[in-house]
Amino acid sequence: MPIIVKAPKGQRISALDFTKGALVLIMVLYHWINYFIGPQWPHYNYLRFLTPSFIFITGFMISNVYLSKYAAADPRLSKRLFTRGLKLMAIFFALNIARFFLVPVLSNGVLPANPLDPNNIYAVFVSGNLPVVGSKLISFSILVPISYLLMLSGALMLPYRLYRYTFQLASALLLLSILVLGLVGERSTILEHLTIGMLGLMSGFAPILKINDFVQHPYLLGIAYVCYTIAVMFWGVPFLLLMVGVPLSLMIIYLLAGGERDPGPIRSEVILLGKYSLFGYIAQMVILQFLVAGLRHINLGVPVLGISFVAAFALTILSVEVVDRLRARAASIDKLYRAVFA
Q1: Which pLDDT belongs to residue 342?
Q2: Is 102 part of any domain?
Q3: Residue environment code for 305-326, b if the CB has 16+ CB neighbours within 10 A, otherwise e
């Protein structure tokens, strides 16, 4: 289900950046609740669309953005996608190695779960079946399925040159695999996220007229979203419902983006967050870790919770602003940023 329109080659899509920036802010809320309220918060299901939404948008960008810059037959496209996937995996490893040594210092001295345990390795890289909240095994887990999606898409660009329905076939095989796992009572969260990413990729091929026709029915979207939240209330978030909730939630955020009109200060800030969505995601996780460490000896009453909440949002936005200005002023910092995040 498409969420934005195509832009001319080389031009950023502000509506897409706004959507990614809004997701970063919602992710700050999600992790703040996780750290400061805890796993007992009863409404996590309504935020379950967050992680697969980032993966859906990644898939959308592959077809809508990357394929507007490179022809499918251009070997640079496969190399770019595969290299970016490997880079994200390297970032994932680096961040979790740092976390393994820093968590005992920042918290109560308890080491995270053993990352070299075979069961933990399987959970992180194969099944993805980690606790929804409260997991101490790893952080930044979203980077793993995004990395897989980029590398898989890079590999599929080769047969896509010869068979135009390559990605549809891959999506069908992923859905079939999920069905087979379900029949034997098993589940793979990574497989589900890959499937949603593939659906995002296919949505990027949608003609602009269909996109415009769809987004010009806000009342229908509102009614559909209300029905989705009611379904979540009764059934939780099974995979089939998540496949509906992710594009629907993204559509609602897209409507708030307000098209391509001149942005106001708030919208501009959200768009800037979207341009630095990966950095913003990492920064807010680090910021929350330090906030928890700094406030762990304080009785968390309502005033302290309020301060931590505001600080998490403000420091995340500030970190992105600082990086953006440093990149504009120092070519070396811009080069370093591109080497790590671009």
Answers
A1: 82
A2: yes
A3: eeebbebbeebbbebbeebbee
Tokens 């920064």 belong to 283
- Say if CB 251 and CB 42 are below 8 A apart: no
Q: How far apart are the first and last CA of the chain?
A: 26
Pick from 174, 209, 229, 216: which is nearest to 55 by CA?
174
Give Dmax (Cα) for the chain: 63
Which residue range(s) make up the domain with 327? 14-341
In this structure, is residue 1 part of a structural domain?
no
Chunk the chain into consecutive blocks of 10 residues (it has 342) and report each block's average pLDDT, rounded to whole numbers.
43 80 94 86 90 94 87 89 95 88 58 69 86 64 95 94 92 95 92 96 79 76 93 93 94 78 82 94 90 75 85 96 95 93 85
4 burial via Cβ count (<10 Å: 0-12, 13-18, 19+): buried
Q: Is the dihedral of CA 259, 263, 264, 266 positive or negative?
A: positive
In a domain, 127, yes or no: yes
CA distance 204 to 63: 5
Q: What is the pLDDT of residue 2?
A: 40
Q: What is the pLDDT of residue 109?
A: 45
For residue 110, give both structure tokens: 């308890």
Please check whether residue 6 lies inside any domain of the structure.
Answer: no
Quote the number of domains for the chain: 1
Token couple for 208: 């602009």
Task: Give the pLDDT score at 112.
Answer: 56
CA 54, CA 61: separation in Å to the nearest integer? 11
